What we know:
- The protein is of the alpha/beta class.
- The protein contains eleven helices and 14 strands.
- The protein is elongated.
- The protein starts with a helix and ends in an 8-residue tail after the last strand.
Amino acid sequence: MSLIGLLGFGLTVLxxxxxxxxxxxxxxxxxxxxxxxxxxxxxxxxxxxxxLPVLVVLLRGRLPVGGSVLDWVGFTWLGLAFYLFLATLATxxxxxxxxxxxxxxxxxxxxxxxxxxVESEPSTVLVPDGARRTDVAPPAPGPAPEGGAxxxxxGVVDPSRRLFLAxxxxxxxxxxxxxxxxxxxxxxNTTPVVRRVPIRIPRLDPALAGLRIVTFSDGHLSTTYGGxxxxxxxxxxxxxxxxxxxxxxxxxxxxxSELREDAAPLADLVSDQGVYFVTGNHEYFVDTGExxxxxxxxxxxxxxxxxxxxxxxxxxxxxxxxxxxxxAASGLPGHGADLDAALDxxxxxxxVVLMAHQPVQVEQARAAGVDLQLSGHTHGGQLWPFDYAVLxxxxxVEGWSQQxxxxxxxxxxxxYWGPPMxxxxxxxVTVIELQPGEPTPPRR
Length: 444
């Protein structure tokens, strides 16, 4: 990512975090407390929590100790704050209804004169010599209401009622947010589900029927994801007895020196015809070259705008891989998606499966006659309702789709980025089982 792009992204995130926490302060602090020390303390606490995610990003890899704890607290709070925002926003209609009901109960400030009321003259007040006479108008006459005198504040909203409503809604929103975020944390850190997806390819030789490509993406190895959880991911992949393993990008969020042990289980992947990897956008946030060299020592072959032949029983198919679409902007010499180079000189009668990190790269794949593209990047939305925002940039959020003559499968990813939680998008490992025949939507 270029410096200008990085600054733009940083400013956008900073603005979003500021607006989010400003709204939370307004509804969860100012509206639920009276001026005083409690409000001041809660304000300071919210400011500290708002700064934490920013510090996590700025100080990543720079703290000698405590970095992992800071990452966990900062990113967990960011996810919780997001759902606090949504839950609190959902209470706004209740506040509006309460305000309208209160407004209707207020009396008409203009007195309505009843027939027969007599207008009284101003009364004269006697004052000592030398002082000014003052004519004082008496209260407007009229029939006294039943029950006695009228309270002067009858039309004023009772502050205690308003405070009670605000606190009740804040507690309800907090309970919903904590429940949602807590469930998301549990799901994000469980063993990935296995999705079996049969895909029919017209040009596939029957000798390749049943070929299994086990794919996953977006491991995002970091200070908050790795260790035993990544070992379980590798064990899940191996349990599927893959013919080919395809890792479609965003494997790491840190340098080799920080994540060497976390990435070590990759060496335990077992496949009949190889383990292959293509870069994602996050590989260009770190020392890309060092990681690509290190992956080769773990038995992972990196496909950079190239292809390999996968064969069985005398039949073959091409497995191609291209760089992420952000690679060219990274400034690294020779990096950039180049599908033409990957497919140059191949036999058009042989089917081709393409590994490309971002689903949007299917536009090039469709034009090039690719049979099947495997992608990740979207995390399935990761935190509902972000899946709707994903569609602003990508053609598909997750699963199978037909893009012209090219089939596209988008896996929802195995790890997470930022908040260590997944809501509405389970981590997954996908088993693509190839079959000859006309494409049909696979059953979920």
